[in-house]
Structure formats: structure tokens, C-alpha cells
Amino acid sequence: MTALATTDPRERVLALLRAHGWNATSFQVLEHGFAYWFDPVTDGCVAYVDTGRAWVAAGSPIAAVEELAACGERFASAAHAAGRRVCFFAVEDRFAERDGVASMPIGEQPSWDPSVWKDVVAGDRRLREQLRRARAKGVSTRAISASDVAAVDAPMRSQVEELVVRWQASRKMAPMGFIVDVQLFEFAEERRCFVAERDGRAIGLLVAVPVYQRAGWLFEDLLRLEAAPNGTTELLVDTAMRAVAAEGSRYVTLGLAPLAGGVHRGLRFFRALGAALYDFDGVRRFKAKLRPDAWTRIHLAWPEGQSGHAAILDALGAFTMRARDGHERASFVRFGLETIAHAPAFAVRVLAVLLVPWTIVLALAPTARFFPSRYVQLAWVFFDAAVLLAMVALGWKWRRGLARVLALATLLDAVLTLGEVLLDAAFRARTLFDADVLVVACIGPILATSLLWGALRRGPTPSGNPHTSAGPLPASGSGRW
Questions:
Q1: Across residues 167-186, what is the average pLDDT?
Q2: Which residue, 314, 399, 414, 470, shows the most beta carbons closer than 10 Å to its own?
């Protein structure tokens, strides 16, 4: 059956992937959430999400190599006709370096020849020790078939779903869409699944998806429970590597290590800013310690003439895509609020940073314009300094008892501030700036109180990154990052 002979868009895309799928992430476009633009000239297509401002493609066009540039140009023309910008996320050099395409590196992707994996293990004492530790703790690994997980009532389905839910609950960031959304059961017969078990229960999972034109595999999802023994992740990788090697595969990748390597200084700023939520360096170290054969640069690309800064924002918007009102929509605000709910310790750190200049301003503010006396002013300064110290301690290590005390303190702060503003300070305000200061003074403790009580209602909150045997991995440590 040719790509044009079927009416199901995803079946048509699957046929194209079998003929032209070369990018490591190419199979991921079969998951829900993507739209497909089919080239009217050639047998090719582009999978993308519409953020409302841009069509963000997942990888390069799925087309014959000699048609990549022309297919990409026609896709860009179709997007512009629809009033959208265009960018291509996670492309390799063969597309990024073509004429008419601008690009920037966004990270590095490791790859292995699984036929020599056994030599990697034999030559690495630390890796052998990790495998030994897992086995000594009673961890075993095995391949499971599509029939074990695809159907709702399949033997392993409930255990796998529980593992995914528990893994996602441990994340410090809100769930993301685009190519990092965990969808294990789409086209399950094309995937390879490996499970790590202990005492008869699943504690880890590796899902591999095909890279057809490389006769290889992307280890797309690599998940493990926090309680899984050290070495569980490595044991899953070892099992999967040996299994695909036995089938004749010569290519495996664990996908992108985001913002690794020589990325643009603006992206390095994002890497530093987001380090508290996502351990970029830890992901890179984990993949490197498995001794890949090569590292490949991965790019964000866009048509020449467009803004690179807009392309970055468009790509970030694609990852915030979530279903709302029956439609997929991008929302940085919603994603930020959900991330705060997932990682209150990080939000407390941000509040602590903001409280430093506020406390300094409070101490230096003219008393007569904002306070009934200098003693009241100093009392507020000392109170905020105490709250600041508590926030620093809570941001460093989340403790429910301290969070409860701090929530009560910020609630008291909100009540007293609102009372003082209404009864005294509002009558002292002389300018619009004075009024703005009073508004901030009221809103700050209300937001802090809402954050803290919301976190306490959600139940136990992890104080640090979830642990793997390789150290903290803020995502799956694989093709999902």
C-alpha cells in the first residue's frame, strides 16, 4: 500500500515514515496532537502543531532527501498563507545547513552502535557495577510485547499506567506537549517495550520506537520509580541494547540532551534560569556515562528572513500546548502556574529572591509616606527578613511543617498589610507610584499564601529532583529528555 492509498492521515504518515523516516524523533509524530501538511508536489509531509502564531514542525519534512528543502519551502509558504510563522524543531545538519534555512544548535544527541554495546560494558567498570547493584537488589528486566500493553485489559497495562502516573507526579515541571508528551500505546505494535521488575511489580520501563531509514531505534521513554534500586536504568538500557543488536540494528539514540554543547548565549541563559526545574547538565552526564559512539548537533531551524528570537518563542509555545475547550492551545501563563503547583519549592526560591529587594526598599522608604511611625516600619522590615530566611530554608529543602508555619506567617502578613493600607497608608499616598507600591505590598503576601496553602493541599511534595542511578534526571532521560 502506498502512502496515497489510505484515507487515515496517521496511516499515511506511517507509510511515509517507513519510506523516508530518518530523523531520530520522526516516529513521535504519530502520537496525538499533531496536524499534518501533505506536500501537493511530492510524496512527503510535515507534522506540526499550530500554536496560534506559528506552525512548529516536529523535525524536518518526511520526504526523500533530495526533496527536503523544496518540501520545507512549500510548507513555509502554506503557513504564511495561513498567517503563521514557521520553525522546525530538532533537525539535524542535513536539513539545517541547506540554502534558505537559518538555524541554531539547541543541544546534542548521542548515538550508539548496539552491535558493540557488549564491548562498552566490558570496558567500563562503573557501568558493570551499576548493573550488578540492580541485579543484587532483585531487579530483573524483560521484553514485553504489544499485546501485553496495547489493550486496556492487557496483562501489563495497569502496571505500566501506574508507573507513568507516579513518574509524572514526581516531575518538577508541569506536563508538556509536542514531542515530550508520554503516549506509550499509540501504534504499539511498532514499538519495543522493556520492563524492570522487582518482587513482581514494574519499577521501570523503556520504550523504543523505530527510526526506519537508519534501521535503528530511539529509546523514547526511560522511566523509573524513585524507589527503584540504583542501576535499574542502566539495566533497562543494557537489556534493550542487546535485544536490538540481536535483531541486526546498528543505530540507537537516547534522543536530545537539551541545551548541551555549544548553544547560543541566549539559550545558555535559559539553561541557567531553568536549572532549578530541569537538570540539563545531569541529563547530558547520564547519556555521556553510557559512552556513546558519537554526539550529533540538533538544531532549531526557520526560513531565512524570519526572526530567530521568534522561532525560540514559537518552539517553547509548542511545548506548552495542552487541550483546552476541545482545542490544543499554547499558554505560557498556564504552564507557569502548573509548574509552580508541581514545584512549590522552586516558586518559594523565586519569592525569596524577590523579597530581598522588597525588604531593602521597605527599610529605605520614607517613613512619613507609608508608615505611622519608624517603629512600625522597622517591625515590618524585621518581619519580612524573618519570612525571607524561612523561604530560603524551605526553598532549599521542602518541609511540610515549615511550609505550614510560613503559610500562616504570610497569611498574617496579608491581613495586617491590607488592614494597614486601608486604615492608614492609603491616606498617605501622594502619587500613582505610591499607590502602585501599596498594591504590590497587598498582592505579594496573598500570592505567597495561595502558593503555600495550595502546595500543602496537594499532599507530600518532593524536596528535590527525582533520583535515578545516574543522578537527578528531570525528565525521562531518553528521547523525551
A1: 67
A2: 314
Strands (E), 254-342: 257-258, 294-303, 322-324, 327-329
The three grid cell numbers given for residue 473, joined into one nine-digit string: 534526571
Q: Is the dihedral of CA 473, 346, 343, 398 positive or negative?
A: positive
Q: Is the pLDDT of residue 154 over 80?
A: no
**What is the pLDDT confidence band of residue 455, given thresholds at 50, 70 and 90?**
confident
**Domain region containing 239:** 119-250
Q: Is the pLDDT of residue 327 over 60?
A: no
Do 272 and 200 share a structural domain? Answer: no
pTM of structure: 0.73
Name the nearest CA neighbour of 181 among 326, 333, 322: 322
Distance in angstroms (rounded) separating the CA atoms of residues 294 and 307: 31
The number of domains in the chain is 3
Beta bridge partner(s), residue 472: 467
Q: Is residue 301 packed enough to be buried (19+ CB in 10 Å), middle (13-18) or exposed (0-12)?
A: buried
Q: How far is residue 184's CA from residue 220's CA, in Å, rounded to a whole number?
A: 9
